[in-house]
């Protein structure tokens, strides 16, 4: 099979490697595609802790496709089943996944891309956020994750205030149900606008979806007394400072919403499958760039640079 190997900082090669064989309790998935996650960008840049070359297919973890082989002891899955897989080397034409970490895709999703990991992540974050009807929810950063959370929160009856840098992102937030949008340009002006919209009460829930220091600072300021700050951004580039005095004074809960329990990760994917299959959520407008495996560097660069209208890249296989 063909697989991408990261050979150095911002360098990769497509290599022909042996097709992996599933062991006991595993399945092999012939991939139709794999989403590109922003968490790939730091390893792609080549920090000192990164080791090259990577294993074939490494960094890709948002794959979907059809099972073409099953290992011993696998029940309930068979070749031909179309699945979303929680696996970790999906920048390749095939990947191995534990049978317990795939979710069958129903016929309603035939022919449609389904990067299950990020969709499931959004549903898990939403559950952890404990959003209720009538609350005001600020979402800081409207990319793929922020857009899906905007839809879920607004459908739950919350008033969503979407805050993001790019005008097209704010338009996307409105499309997915945001009641208010604020350009993410001036720290204090944003805070004053949210106070104006909430009668000085600020927000019961604030979800930070960027993964950088300033958006985290801003999100902290927007939480009202007794509210919840939900950290959904992936902070992987170093330590953060927080205003513990303000956190103490306001008595807020701080939730790191990245799930590491495999059963919970799988629950989110199942919820996403049901929502998309029934039409409650349409993620298609969020898939704004499709690339071949040979174009992986372009997909990663687009994920970093966000050209006009960009939300999420997919690497697809013939």
From TrEMBL:
For this UniProt record, the keywords arranged alphabetically read as follows: Metal-binding, Oxidoreductase, Zinc
Q: What highest taxon heads this organism's lineage?
A: Bacteria
Q: What range(s) does the Enoyl reductase (ER) domain occupy? A: 8-231
Q: Which PROSITE patterns match?
A: ADH_ZINC
Which cofactors, by name?
Zn(2+)
Q: Which residues cross the membrane?
A: none
Q: Which SUPFAM superfamilies match?
A: GroES-like (SSF50129), NAD(P)-binding Rossmann-fold domains (SSF51735)
GO MF, one annotated term: zinc ion binding
For this chain, the family text in UniProt reads:
Belongs to the zinc-containing alcohol dehydrogenase family.
This one is known as Zinc-binding dehydrogenase
